[in-house]
Amino acid sequence: MPYKLLFVCLGNICRSPAAENIMNHLIEQAGLSDKIVCDSAGTSSYHTGDPPDRRMTAAAASKLGIKLRGCARQFTKADFEEFDLILAMDRENFANICYLDPTGSYQHKVRLMCDFCTRHSLKEVPDPYYGGVEGFNQVLDLLMDACEGLLGYVLNEITYPSH
Ligand code: 4NP
C-alpha cells in the first residue's frame, strides 16, 4: 500500500493543488511514485469542480516548470481514514479540518504544511487569492521548501513506521 498524502487549503485551487503537484514532481524525480501518492482538497466547496487558479498555474509553470493538474473537491470526513497524513496550509484550514473530527481520533494525522519547512520561518502558507503575482511566487517558494522536508519525513515513516 502506498503512503497517502492529502494537501488541504480553503478553495483547493491555489495552494493545495500547487503543493500536490510540486510533491508529485519530487516523488517522480526520486523514483517513488509507487510508494507515495498525493491528492488535495479544500475545506470549502466554493470552487468544487474547478481547475487550479490560472495565476497559480502560470506561476508554477514559469518559476518551476511544473504543470498543475487537478479538479477542486471539498474535504470530507472519509479523508481521515483514506489518508496517512493531512497537510493544512494555514491554521484556519487546520481548525476546520479538526472540527470534522470532534473526538480527535485522527489528530495525529493532521499537520501544518510549514512544519516541514527548513529554510523559511513562516508558520502558515499565506492565502494568495486576493493578492498579486508576488504572493503566488512566495507560496511556491514556501511549498518547495515544505515538500522537500516532507519527502524526507515520509521516507522515514515508510522505513520506520510510527503508527
Ligand atoms: P486557496 O485560495 O485556498 O489557496 O485555493 C483561495 C481560493 C479561493 C478563495 C480563497 C482562497 N475564495 O475565497 O474563493
Mean pLDDT: 98
Structural class: alpha/beta
Based on the structure, what is the oligomeric state of the protein chains? single chain
Q: C-alpha Rg, in Å?
A: 15 Å
Relative strand content? 5-15%
What portion of residues is helical? 40-55%
Q: What is the H/E order?
A: EHEHHEHEH
Q: What shape does the CA trace take?
A: globular
Main sheet specs = 4 strands, parallel
Distance between the termini: 14 Å
Protein architecture, described:
This protein has 163 residues and is of the alpha/beta class. 41% of the residues lie in helices and 13% in strands. Strands 2-1-3-4 form a four-stranded parallel β-sheet, with helices on both faces. 4-nitrophenyl phosphate binds at residues 9-15, 46-47, 127, 129.
Give me the secondary-structure topology.
Blueprint: E1 3-9, H1 15-29, E2 36-42, H2 54-64, H3 78-82, E3 85-88, H4 91-99, E4 110-112, H5 133-159
Parallel strand pairs: 1-2, 1-3, 3-4
Helix pairs in contact: 1-5, 2-5
The structure holds 4-nitrophenyl phosphate.
Throw out a few tags for this protein.
single chain, 163 residues, alpha/beta, four-stranded parallel sheet, 5 helices, 41% helix, binds 4-nitrophenyl phosphate
Short description:
Helices cover 41% and strands 13% of the residues. It has 163 residues and is of the alpha/beta class.
